[in-house]
Write a structure and sequence with these properties.
Elements lengths: L3 E8 L8 E3 L1 E5 L3 E2 L12 H6 L9 E5 H9 L13 E4 L11 E4 L3 E8 L5 H5 L3 H4 L1 E3 L5 E3 L3 E7 L1 E4 L3 E6 L11
Parallel strand pairs: 5-6
Antiparallel strand pairs: 1-2, 1-6, 1-13, 3-4, 3-12, 5-11, 7-8, 7-13, 8-11, 9-10
Protein name: MOSC domain-containing protein
Pfam family, one: MOSC
InterPro entries: MoCF_Sase_C, MOSC_domain, Pyrv_Knase-like_insert_dom_sf
Length: 181
């Protein structure tokens, strides 16, 4: 069995679409990624903050599976890690198949609890025309499949680097499909 790995990490202090690749990021318990614009106990995503600034920040860390970048490349899009706004790009783990509340261990000590799916927005098409549609799919029942990664909150802080192992540390007893957050 191949070990799932972090392939890239990124952060940005400003609210931009993409994030800057880093050698490492520090996850801060209950807050998110140190130095990132989305760090905080309450929601930091600008459109969500306008609606309800006191809402809990369920989007402290954004994770994307590297296999999505491969799929996008096969469709003619050139997307590097961090360019879709993710903090952690991983390979070898089915992020989209995780249940709500699953805890991922990243590197030596960091742990994040998965809160839901990222909902792709129009900014993706501003980055590359047609990219948003390429990050969406339809399930056999016709329901929308969002493939732009998952959002999480930091349960245990720690440093995360490219090459670090990723594993599912715990899963809830009851499987609940990931909501959009």
């Amino acid at each position: 069995m191949t070990t799932a790995r972090v392939i890239a990490v990124a952060a940005d202090a400003d609210h931009r679409f993409g994030k800057t690749s880093r050698a490492e990021i520090a996850l801060v318990e209950g807050l998110g990624v140190a130095g990132d614009a989305h760090l905080g106990v309450t929601v930091q995503h600008l459109s969500h903050k306008k609606k309800d600034p006191d809402r809990a920040n369920l989007r402290q860390v954004h994770l994307i599976h590297g296999e999505l970048l491969d799929e996008l490349a096969d469709k003619g899009f050139a997307v590097a890690p961090g360019e879709l706004g993710e903090n952690v790009t991983v390979r070898g783990i089915d992020l989209l198949g995780l249940p709500e509340g699953a805890v991922l261990a990243l590197g030596e000590s960091a742990q994040v609890r998965v809160t839901g799916l990222r909902n792709p927005c129009v900014q993706i098409d501003r980055f590359q025309k047609g990219l948003m549609a390429a990050t969406l799919d339809r399930a056999p029942d016709g329901s929308l499949v969002r493939k732009c990664g998952v959002m999480a909150v930091v349960e245990t802080g720690g440093v995360v680097r490219a090459g670090d192992a990723v594993r599912v540390a715990t899963v809830p007893d009851l499987f609940v499909a990931l909501p959009v957050v």
